[in-house]
């Protein structure tokens, strides 16, 4: 793992290395038994994993990083990283300790004689103790592909995932293949190997970086992204460096790169093919129509070819094949992982983290009385649909109830005090009152950990005091939200290095910004519904909001 020096800010931004901020209390780090509790996985226990453009903290590097450093970085950026990335810890396998067969490995381990001892040394510099640890470091390298992965992939290929009768078996062998990774890095087993895990994920992250940069992709998550077939990146008479690609999403990228259709086609346009979308590809005066299946195969072939041409120095592009999930004619994006795709102007099921795609009850106040006003409210679908229609005029969310499964940690939180008996127990359904949170910080690339911390504190403070965050500063006269302006403004401030949003407001300089605060129009309703649920479900009330 490597880090930049304390208080040092990189001159040349990067978005390749992922930082890890450990928990403040090292005692919170995982032990074997800790992993068994699902609620253990919080920032307080395992730390924060996030990307910072001008700072690196405990990032994992391997051979793929070295390739990226040599072939994708400009000379000044390469020099800065080589001069300022300090090694915090390292893990390696000595070539001299490697054996070639399992029998040889067993013999070496069985016959190893080592131990731990100390040697006191007395000289003019004083007395010191040298500790010597001699343990067995014999190791055997196995190709996972030859061991089991290739066999699983071969079995999976026998079943067509597009065939409803065979899809279940295709998914089954996909699950088998994916869980092999979990088995190799799980702390439950003696074969658990953090080095293997880090190298596998580092390789996948490198490929994801290539896809995002080469395709000008959106919402890159784990091993995939979405992109516009008519706007992939090509060099503009100069070598594409990581610095140029980093700025591809900002106005400052003008002239440094060019956007053209995939495969250098003149035009790529969709057409309806049995309810799905096919493609019409025009090139050199000829237009070829591809069915949905043919179009996916064409994209898969041309996309990986595009990456190989764009990043010839990165070996990772030669180890992956790409799979196109579906072709859409439009898509709405929100935050880092929320989206709503459409085919032939028909919206599909929205994907919005922590929001369910089930009808919800909406409650509101009539005078002082809480009343149910709606029973089929879909918060994620309504919000994302409004973004697609006009992102400058988005109606504010309604107070709704969401059914959830009561987990152990939440049970302890709600029922730990002597508030009385309850018929609920872990595994039961219970209700939670919620609002759609339009503003999110997850979509922005922060420069440093300290900058992210500052914005996060301000975000939580505003939410606690007003029931909303930055939305209140971007409202139209009719009370709707100008989400487009909100996103662009926050992105600009974060890129420029502002430590918090309030720095951009004149009233903040005289400490009068609180005079511009305003409650979310549903804040009081939400608070009353939470209290009502606490009484109905017989649990202790949640922390009181400061605006109550």
Automatic annotation (TrEMBL):
This is DNA-directed DNA polymerase. It comes from Symploca sp. SIO1C4.
